[in-house]
Structure formats: structure tokens, C-alpha cells
Amino acid sequence: MGYEAINLIDKFARIDAQWSPRVVAEMNDVQFKLAKIEGEFIWHRHDDTDEVFIVIEGRLVLEFRDGRVELGSGEMFVVPRGVEHRPIADGECRIMLVEPRGVVNTGDAGGDRTAPNDLWV
Amino acid sequence: MGYEAINLIDKFARIDAQWSPRVVAEMNDVQFKLAKIEGEFIWHRHDDTDEVFIVIEGRLVLEFRDGRVELGSGEMFVVPRGVEHRPIADGECRIMLVEPRGVVNTGDAGGDRTAPNDLWV
């Protein structure tokens, strides 16, 4: 049988839009998504799930209502369920998101920054 | 409130044993574990869950009964539930495992390679 590694660099090269997470793998009901992001996102929260951010390349700021955390390459953070947050990246940043299948990027906020869900790359 | 990034390099520096996964984060019931591995592990499977391997540094071979996959830095693979596998690393390899809380490293096989579970670093 053929087994193939999932190469993150190769997957990123095939992502043609910012702020549009693409699924690269599933473990049970959990999805691993890659996203290219740049600039400011909107404030939102996910009431039903924690959300993991892992920075693969670049720098990411996660703003909270009462603080912030800055992540560089090889750093991660778990945003607890229900906590409002806003991702910001000064330059293009490449991140991996880990969260259950079905989570939408804009959470409770909706609006025109909502990306198509469950797109694979 | 204070928010702190989880730095994978810093965490690896604090892991003093090979083949002993250490938890660095949880998302819902899913744990993110780091492990330093070198040499051959034992054949085993996890009947109740898929298991994610992400190589942070080094090279990892996952052997299966009917094939194998080799992973370098920045590559990942999802071992489906129930599939027998054996990790092998020629030199020390640093990996992230993602799997539900409670999964034991030796799966169904047990034995003296079984590491303490739920150790955090």
C-alpha cells in the first residue's frame, strides 16, 4: 500500500488566498488546517471549542480583550472556548490551526470574512 | 491577564528521556505531546483513535505491515485507528504527537516500553 507524508511547505505553496484555512489532515473529528494570514482579522469567539494556533513561519499576534500573546515560528497557543480573540499578522504569516471539523473561521461573528469551510488542499 | 506562548524548542530542551511523550497543550480532550525518539520502537496499534505524527526536527520512519512512510522536518502523517505501526528513527528525532487524552504510547502491545502517561513539560 502507498503511504505519503503530508509536507507542510508543499501544501502552503498550493494555497492561493489569505485568511482561507485549508484542511490537510483529520484525526478522528479533529482537523488540521493551514492558513496564510496577513493584516488584522475580526474579533470573534468559538463557544463550543478550544482552538489551537501553531506558527509555522512568520509572526502572529493574538489579541484578547484583556491582553495579547505574540507567537513566532515554532510557537503555539490554545485559545480557550468562549474567549474573544483577534489574530493579527504584520507580514504574511503561515499557521496551522487545529480544531474540530465544522469550526468556521469567524466563529460567532460571521460576516464577509467568513471563509468556505472544509476546503482541502 | 498573562498569556504565554508555548515554545516547542524550549519544551524539548526540558525533556530528559527518549520515548517518553510529554504533554505541552490540550485542546478539548486532545493532547499535544512532544517526544524525543531514537532507534526502533515496538509494533503496536491504537484501536480507538487515529494518531498524528508531526516531525519537528530529524527524520522518522513509520513502518506498517504493508509499507512505510518516511517523514522529515515539517512533515506529518495520520496513522488510522487499528493500523499496526512501528516508529523508527536512525538519529534522535523530535516529534509532536496529537491524540486524545489517555492514549498510551505502546497501544495494545503494553510491555516495558510503556511510558508514564499524561506527564506534562
From TrEMBL, chains A, B:
It is found in: Cytoplasm. Residues 11-77 form the Cyclic nucleotide-binding domain. It comes from the Bacteria. One of its GO terms (cellular component) is cytoplasm. Coiled coil: none annotated. InterPro entries: cNMP-bd_dom, Cupin_2, PKS_Associated_Protein, RmlC-like_jellyroll, RmlC_Cupin_sf. Pfam families: Cupin_2 (PF07883). This is Cyclic nucleotide-binding domain-containing protein. It comes from Cognatilysobacter bugurensis.
